[in-house]
Structures are given as structure tokens and as C-alpha cells.
From TrEMBL:
The gene is lutA_1. It comes from Gimesia algae. Signal peptide: none annotated. The lineage of its organism: Bacteria, Pseudomonadati, Planctomycetota, Planctomycetia, Planctomycetales. InterPro entries: Cys_rich_dom (IPR004017). This is Lactate utilization protein A. GO terms for cellular component: cytosol.
Length: 248
């Protein structure tokens, strides 16, 4: 029997990049997953939490539990939103067994593909030099890849997945796990710093010959794409789900 998955779509994807949500759906269905999109879902509350408005997050967290608790898994094409659920909802659910179960079965999209469905290789062809941006939440909170400040053998299932696609050449960056500078409300409160950090990341990809810039978080890509478009750089930006669905 196919696993029944609740598709959790971040606000900015819903409003600005619906094609990313559709690509995520198509990839999951390709691998035999029974996907539902609960239309009553709302924001996870991350913007409010980032600005210290934790009281405003509580009703959203409780609504999230009610909407998604009945699924075999919850999958989201955003490491930051998944991290919000798995690492920042606990204060609202002390000793709540239902939430503990939901937290354990909430996954970032590629984490679900590689570690639950155990997809390690992909058919298809994508003849481009691809630059992988490792977003901070996915890297340092969800531990989806190794970070440079931690000793130990390197790992990263998304990198392995991309390398399995015919025609993909991965860019060799000088600083492979540096922040893009977006940080949600940080980009508003510290605009100049945010833009300088983003420009540094774009320059690193440019010197590496990146043709297609991808990541697990459309929020980071939104920030970088704005810089790329304003500076008229010859780099195409695609969420990882868009690359995978094009291959499939």
C-alpha cells in the first residue's frame, strides 16, 4: 500500500513559486506516493518566531498538528519550514505524544526521497553545470549534509542524487556551505549586509562556472535570484524539485 503523505507547502512557494509545489507533487507521485494537499494549511509561523512574536506562533503550531497528524508522513520542499516544526514547536507541545509522532515523520522533500523512499539514483538527463547551495537550516539544524566546521567524514544525499543524473557536473565552490544572507526578516532588518552576503554567494558560483543554481530552500534561491537578475548574471535558478521533475 502506498504511503499517504501530507504535502506541506511554504507560503512563499504557494504565493510566488507554485511550480515548485507542483514539481514536488509530481516527483513524489512518480515514486508511488499517495499525496494529499490539505487546503486548510497555513503559515508555519516562522516569520513571527524570527521576530520574537512567539505567542502568535502557538495557534499556528496547534493548527499544523491538527491538519497533518493523520498522515504517514509530512513532506515539505523547504528545509527552513521543516526545521521550524522539528526544532521550534516543542515549547507549545510539552509531553504531547501526538506532536512527538508528527515531528518524527515530518521531512524535507529530498530527505524523504533519499532516506525514507531510499532513492539513491535518478534516470534522465540534465546536461548542465549545477551549483548546489546548502541552506543553513537544512545544513545545521536538519543535518542534511556535512558542514565545514564539524569534523568527520563528508556526507550529503542530495549531492549524491544530483551526481547520479546523466549530464550533471557539480560546481566546485570556494565556500560550499556559506549563508546566502537571506535569513527571512534579516533581509529586511539588515538589507545591506544581506545583499553583500548574497553577492558573495553569487560570485562564488560565477567563478565556479555554475549554469544552474539549485537548493532545497526556495527562500534562499529567491534572494539569490533577485541579485542575479538585477546584475544580469547568466545563471539560471531552479529548486531541486524542478531539476528532478525535468529529469523524470
Amino acid at each position: 500500500m502506498a504511503p499517504k503523505v501530507g504535502l506541506f507547502i511554504p507560503c512563499y512557494i504557494d504565493q510566488l513559486y507554485p511550480q515548485v509545489g507542483i514539481a514536488t507533487l509530481k516527483v513524489l507521485e512518480h515514486f508511488g506516493v499517495d499525496v494529499e494537499y490539505p487546503e486548510t494549511q497555513t503559515c508555519c509561523g516562522q516569520p513571527m518566531a524570527n521576530t520574537g512574536c512567539t505567542n502568535e506562533v502557538e495557534p499556528l503550531a496547534k493548527r499544523f498538528l491538527e491538519i497533518f497528524k493523520g498522515y504517514d508522513a509530512v513532506v515539505c520542499p523547504s528545509g527552513s519550514c521543516v526545521s521550524m516544526v522539528k526544532h521550534h514547536y516543542d515549547e507549545y507541545f510539552s509531553g504531547n505524544a501526538e506532536f512527538d509522532a508528527l515531528k518524527a515523520k515530518t521531512y524535507e522533500f529530498c530527505d524523504y526521497l533519499t532516506n525514507v523512499l531510499e532513492i539513491k539514483t535518478l534516470s534522465g538527463r540534465f546536461p548542465h553545470k549545477v551549483g548546489l547551495h546548502q541552506s543553513c537550516h537544512g545544513l545545521r539544524e536538519l543535518r542534511l549534509a556535512s558542514s565545514s566546521e564539524v569534523m568527520g567524514p563528508p556526507f550529503g544525499n542530495v549531492r549524491v542524487l544530483l551526481e547520479s543524473i546523466e549530464g550533471v557536473e557539480l560546481s566546485q565552490l570556494q565556500r560550499p556551505d556559506e549563508c546566502c544572507g537571506f535569513g527571512g526578516t534579516f533581509a529586511v532588518a539588515e538589507e545591506a549586509v544581506s545583499c553583500m552576503m548574497g553577492e558573495d554567494r553569487v560570485h562564488d558560483h560565477e567563478q565556479a562556472g555554475t549554469e544552474v543554481l539549485t537548493a532545497l530552500d526556495m527562500s534562499c534561491l529567491m534572494h539569490l535570484d533577485g541579485i542575479i537578475r538585477r546584475q544580469k548574471k547568466p545563471i539560471r535558478v531552479m529548486h531541486i524539485s524542478e531539476i528532478l521533475v525535468e529529469c523524470l
